[in-house]
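Ticket reopened. Same input as before:
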Amino acid sequence: MDAPSAVRKYSEPEYAKPDQQKTNSPYWRAKIDKYLIPETQRLLDEYSNIPLEKQSYHVHKIRDQAWAIRSYPCTGLGMWLDPFLPHSPSYQTILQRLRDGARLIEIGCFLGNDLCRLAFDGAPTDNMYGVDIVNHWDVSFAMYRDRGRFKAQFIQANLLSNLDESPALKELQGTVDIIYVSAVLHQWDWKGQVEAAKRVAAFTRAPSREGCKAMIVGYQVEMLRQRKWSMKRHRYPCGGILQRPLQSSGEQVGAETGTTWKTESRLRSYEEMGWDPADFAWLEPGDMALDFVVTRIR
Ligand SMILES: C[S@@+](CC[C@H](N)C(=O)[O-])C[C@H]1O[C@@H](n2cnc3c(N)ncnc32)[C@H](O)[C@@H]1O
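Engineering reply: fixed in the latest deploy. New output:
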């Protein structure tokens, strides 16, 4: 028989003690060490100066701070510890372009994990921006211990907001070389995704005479089986959203922006993304991640 809760002994350390709110969530796990992978351990050790033996405690504490702000699945499950951008085929190009002075924005940046990784890999951060509707920036400084040397600017704003209400976003229109947007666009239905894609596209700089072309890089989770509310997403996943409408004058994005794009994308299983499929039992089986690199041609 279970001991009364007041005297029940938990095997988990203090930080991982479950509470009602967390254990009720399908996407919260007491322990997220499986996503504390060697490349993240190295980042925390060498960039943040947190020795290996203290890292598990550290990331669980940070996870709970972030969870207290918003209970996103990737926060509760710990996937935010497993970087996406360094595994994009565009990563070395992005690093080089940043070293050459390019400007980068991450939309829906959360802790800006991959921005810190770029910094660790040698990219300057003074021409980086993180945009998010919710502010996790102090939690990010607590995670990476880089306040004072990490210069990326955080802008708290809704991507879909009226630009007159967000002067900081307005100023960046047409000035950005690289946009990173991961696990954000899939929250909207087709109409919302087209609107969001147009907003994302509007940040990009027009191709230069020297041949520098703006890029939009990221991923979103795709539902491969038709379901009532995801049918359009199923047919035109993000790569399609950023390509098909932009290339067809009859479609909304292309018609309204007059731009042309080249889309490269690949569908990856959760295992290929480095995620434990058991953590996605709350989604439909067979869903995958669509990893994309979209380049502005005109
Ligand atoms: C699932 S999290 C992904 C975070 C991060 N990009 C990653 O891959 O780990 C989605 C992020 O997008 C932000 N977000 C959602 N809607 C937004 C909007 N309309 N404008 C700006 N940020 C938004 C959320 O606050 C959250 O930080």
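The radius of gyration is 20 Å. Residues 1-13, 226-251 have pLDDT under 50 and may be disordered. Please confirm and we'll close it.
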